[in-house]
Amino acid sequence: MRRPGLIVGLAMGVVAAAVLAVLLGETLLTPGQWLQGLTDPASGPGEVLWAVRAPRAVCALMVGAALGLAGAVMQGLLRNPLADPGVLGVSATAALGAALAIVAGAAALPGAVEVSALVGAGGGGLLLVGFAARVRQPEALILFGVALSSFAGALTALVFNLSPSPIATAEVMSWLLGSVQNRSWIDVLWVAPPLALSALLATLAAPGLRMLSLGEETAATSGLPMTRLRLLALIAATVATGAAVAAAGVIGFVGLAAPHLVRAAVRGDPGRILLPSALAGGLMLVSADLLARMTPTDQELKLGVFTALVGAPLFALIAWRAAREWRL
User: Fold this and answer.
1) How far apart are CA 308 and CA 153, in angstroms?
2) How much is the average pLDDT of 74-102?
3) pTM surpassing 0.70?
4) Cβ distance 73 to 233 under 8 Å?
């Protein structure tokens, strides 16, 4: 499939999934109620469609797109197909910031948890940018990211251990599992501007990602400002990951799997894979959230748990198919 056809197909899939996410849910509506809700947003069915389901679907789309974009950027930057938004520790530092805000009792303040998560992601990003400015080897950056992730994870566990309230501990645990439940249009605004910024930065960094796929020596002789392009790519991934975690908590596997779903269609080009990965990530998360809502359980499954349960076997299948191609 050519890239324009791939993008059109993914966009149509995203629209179809979003429409289903708005029309379907735990509350079953009759065709007459659907028509009333679509034509009269102030009615009861209209409130369900436009004030509950629609912002949740759009938030899932934005978060999935941010994770898919971050995964594609990081896999190109690190030249590692197993890289994902959590590999450099930004997800962990964002989660730490949110956990501290919840335990401190700031969750009652509108936007406090989201701002704390963005601050945590920004702090982790600054450390990564400072390290990357001095060390160019991707292996060293991965090791630094793993260390940062482990340290932030340990501090988050310490927050659990020292939490004065079991209610706050439960809130932190619920948030860390990831969800777009009860999200509003305000939550959409938390992720949309950072996603647009990260998309712009990733587009500017795309030539550098493409040169890196040819090797460090080729990239160094290309005449491109590789140091600046690397930093742009790192900032793009950091901003996208921080926005996703701020809006929905920690959701794994989307950033890892989304680029692999479209990689063959763009022949592994790190520059051309960015938009398809974002669309694939959005499609994955909207579909996963819809399935999580429709699964008949006493308590709704957390989105982060559901993506791991569904995504792990899917990624194993992708890895198995790739291994067969490598052996041929």
Assistant:
1) 19
2) 84
3) yes
4) yes
Cα separation, 209 vs 213, in Å, equals: 7
* Run of H or E including 304: helix 303-327
Q: What share of the chain has pLDDT > 90, as a percent?
A: 21
CA atoms of 102 and 306, how far apart (whole Å)? 24
- What are the tokens at 243? 């926005």
Compute the distance between CA of residue 254 and CA of residue 84 in angstroms, rounded to an integer.
8
Q: How many CA atoms lie within 13 A of 212 on its CB side?
A: 24
| 84 vs 39: CA distance, rounded Å | 42
**How wide is the angle at C-alpha 247 spanned by C-alphas 147 and 271, nearest 5°?**
65
pLDDT score at 12: 94
Whether 60 and 73 have beta carbons less than 8 Å apart is answered as: no
Tell me the C-alpha distance between 176 and 2, whole Å: 38
Tokens of 293: 């809502």
Interatomic CA distance for residues 312 and 112, integer angstroms? 33
Query: To 5 degrees, how large is the angle CA 128–CA 132–CA 138?
Result: 105
Rounded CA gap, 115 and 123, in Å? 12
CA distance 315 to 321: 10
Q: Can you read off the two tokens belonging to residue 133?
A: 């400015």
Give the pLDDT mean for 17-28: 84
pLDDT in tens, 29-58: 778 887 888 787 888 888 888 888 899 999
Size (the chain), residues: 328
DSSP 224: S
Give the domains, in start order, of the chain with CATH numbers: 3-327 (1.10.3470.10)
